[in-house]
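Hi F.,

I've been meaning to write this up properly since the lab meeting, where we talked about keeping a consistent format for the predictions we share between groups. The idea is simple: the sequence comes first, exactly as it goes in, then the structure tokens exactly as they come out, then a line or two of notes. No screenshots and no reformatting. I'm using this chain as the first example so we have something concrete to point to.
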Amino acid sequence: VQLQASGGGLVQPGGSLRLSCTASDFTLGDYAIAWFRQAPGKEREGLACISSSDGSADYADSVEGRFTISRDNAKNTVYLQLNSLKPEDTAVYYCATYLLSCRFVTTTQAFGSWGQGTLVTVSS
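Output, unedited:
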């Protein structure tokens, strides 16, 4: 089980990006999927999670109102829309299966499988 995050890049403060999460060997819709990030020298930070049952979403306080997680089961893809980006959002972003209820999204020990991340750099 391995997930692939993509869509990162360089963006100016206040800008937007949409990240995508795909998997080639299993169905994302069967799992709760979460996004987390890790910046150099910082701890892993859980950001957002979308449930497998009803598609409900939960967010960390640091990104609530700016980031939106969604899923397209027909495309076997989960998205993370990043808006109003700040320099402190600079990090490598990963998607992962999530082993608890999504309301515990900031519990980083609950991330299951993940793969290669995508770098988001917010800078002018």
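Notes:
The first strand starts at residue 3 and ends at 6.
The radius of gyration is 13 Å.

If this format works for you, I'll send the rest the same way.

G.
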